[in-house]
Design a protein that fits this description.
This protein is of the alpha+beta class. The chain has helices spanning 29-40, 45-59, 95-100, 119-130, 135-148, 154-170, 177-183, 199-211, 214-218, 220-231, 238-242, 271-280, 292-312, 323-326, 329-337, 442-454, 460-465, 485-493, and strands at residues 17-19, 22-26, 69-76, 79-85, 150-151, 195-196, 247-249, 252-256, 259-263, 356-363, 368-374, 383-385, 390-392, 422-426, 429-437, 469-473, 476-480, 497-501, 509-515, 521-525, 532-535.
């Protein structure tokens, strides 16, 4: 990785962190330390990733939970392995019934957007295939935090309070009462530094650890979920849970500036970052990142890629075009040729046929993990299975009701998915995991972090610190307040509808670990949240 570890172009609350025997980077310090403790007890990078991921369901419930989905890219045995642990829609899911009821889109809250959660099976499957320690030992730190409590961190407390206010206004039905009883037993969100605990969460994690997640899909917890769903006439059933298995898949990649950039294949939208990079590699960015036309090309490339992906990406069984079609050099050149000097309203092309947490880990033996899990939109559906601490996600809200679309909601179907882990290799060797969480900001964050490092020579922390932009549709581009004024002016003069935001909440939160040419590890974490790099 060609970066200068001593040069910081942007003010930072953090410096890069170095280690040699192991490293865990997450958006919450307690989870990072839990992963590091597992490494020190003889666990490998996969064990550490599971420990941190499970811990995050407890210490950052505002972004993920037991009832969410997960994806992971694992470097083990000298190669990459991809695990897609996103769930499918219930067998009873039906677009026509929603349309007949007057819905224009799949609701965000309640039972309709609940798909089968994949995260518990991800933990068990990763442990089975690659773990060095028993799953029960790896999950113990999270169980302890859930039963004994932990002090809530500032960013989490802020998001918790926002969710409480939203749900008070929008969730008046009886089915939502368990959420308030579980997460706001004092009739408010916990304050920063206040101890919060959940015995139901601890009990559920204990059952999952002892059964290898069997209880969640075919045991007592599955029965609890099924009973709760039947009580409210929901689509989801115990049969849906019993039918679920995560999928091992081959990650997909493009070569950019001599590095292979890896993402998970659809149903996730990581392919959009690869498509944008494929367009961008036709230009050389020899000038400064502060040069206005560079931002214009980055934004326009991302707009084209995103527009295609939102039209074509879905459960791969229903897609019109394959990843190979969308990532072909011929198609990238065609899309590149459509980018002019001014902002455009993007439309899909036609290829030739051919609330989230991110974490990354590494150990001294060369294993590395890029992992992400989410309940989506904060706490997800606002449904909690009574007495269990299981907050059910709302991933089904990423389906649409356009019955001509490959991503229209239907039975036993995976939705378009926003959570995407990333990974870098060079000449067949691992460079390291990276990720930026945050809904539809994620591929845009991947693009910016990668170009910061690979085009502009920033070190990983500097790449995360740098001001960000976010395309939100049409010609609208949101900028962080720290973005230089001349960049905003240049983009505006090219026809971009520029909105400068005071808050950085919507611009994503990321982590990076890179293995250096010396065999040591360098890590960076997000200044926009409570992140931490724990190193050994």
């Amino acid at each position: 990785m060609n970066f200068n570890p001593w040069s910081y172009k942007y003010p930072s609350r953090r410096a890069v962190v170095y280690g040699s025997r192991g490293m865990v980077a997450t958006g919450q310090p307690l989870a990072a330390q839990a992963g590091l403790d597992i490494l020190k007890r003889g666990g490998n990078a996969v064990d550490a990733a599971i420990a941190a991921a499970v811990c995050l369901t407890v210490v950052e419930p505002t972004s993920n939970g037991i009832g969410g989905d997960s994806f992971a890219i694992v470097w083990h045995g000298g190669r990459l392995h991809g695990l897609n642990a996103s769930g499918f829609s219930p067998a009873l899911a039906d677009a026509s019934s929603l349309i007949s009821a007057g819905h224009k889109y799949v609701p965000h809250l309640g039972w309709y957007p609940v798909t089968v959660p994949g995260a518990p099976f991800a933990w068990a499957e990763l442990s089975r295939k690659f773990g060095a320690l028993p799953l029960a030992d790896v999950m113990r730190p999270a169980i302890t935090y859930a039963s004994e409590g932990y002090p809530v961190s500032p960013n989490t407390a802020k998001l918790w309070a926002e969710a409480y206010g939203k749900y008070l206004a929008e969730c008046g039905g009886d089915e939502f009462k368990p959420w308030f009883e579980t997460f706001c037993p004092k009739n408010r969100a916990p304050l920063p530094g206040e101890i919060w605990r959940s015995e139901g969460h601890a009990d559920s994690l204990t059952e999952i650890a002892e059964s290898g997640a069997e209880t969640f899909y075919r045991g007592r917890l599955a029965e609890s979920i099924d009973e709760f769903a039947r009580r409210y006439g929901a689509w989801l059933s115990g049969d849906d849970l019993a039918a679920y298995r995560p999928e091992w898949v081959e990650p997909i990649s493009v070569n950019y500036r001599g590095y292979d950039v890896w993402e998970m294949p659809p149903n996730g939208h990581g392919i959009s970052a690869l498509m944008a990079l494929n367009i961008l590699k036709g230009w050389e960015f020899s000038g400064s990142r502060e040069y206005g036309p560079t931002y214009h090309r980055l934004i326009e490339s991302m707009k084209l890629a995103f527009t295609d992906v939102m039209r074509y990406v879905a459960d791969p069984r229903f897609m019109e075009f394959s990843p190979e079609d969308l990532l072909s050099d011929r198609y990238a050149a065609l899309r590149r040729s459509s980018i002019g000097e001014d902002a455009a309203d993007p439309v899909p092309g036609r290829p030739q046929r051919g609330g989230t947490v991110y974490l990354c880990t590494a150990d001294g033996d060369g294993n590395m993990v890029s992992m992400i899990q989410s309940n989506y939109m904060g706490f997800g559906s606002a449904l909690v299975v009574p007495g269990t601490g299981i907050a059910l996600h709302n991933r089904g809200s990423n389906f649409n009701l356009d019955q001509s679309s490959p991503n229209c909601i239907g039975p036993s179907k995976k939705p378009y998915h926003t959570i995407i882990p990333g990974f870098l290799t060079k000449d067949g060797d691992a460079v390291g995991p990276f990720g930026v969480m945050g809904g539809f900001m994620q591929p845009q964050g991947h693009l910016q972090v990668l170009t910061n490092m690979l085009d502009f020579g920033m070190n990983p922390q500097e790449a995360l610190d740098a001001p960000r932009w976010q395309w939100t549709g049409g010609r609208t581009v949101e900028l962080e307040q720290s973005m230089p004024n001349h960049i905003a002016g240049e983009l505006s003069s090219r026809g971009h509808d520029i909105r400068v935001l005071e808050s950085s909440t919507t611009f994503g939160r990321g982590e990076i670990i890179v293995r250096t040419e010396h065999g040591t590890l360098v890590g960076a974490t997000e200044p926009r949240t409570d992140g931490c790099v724990a190193a050994w």
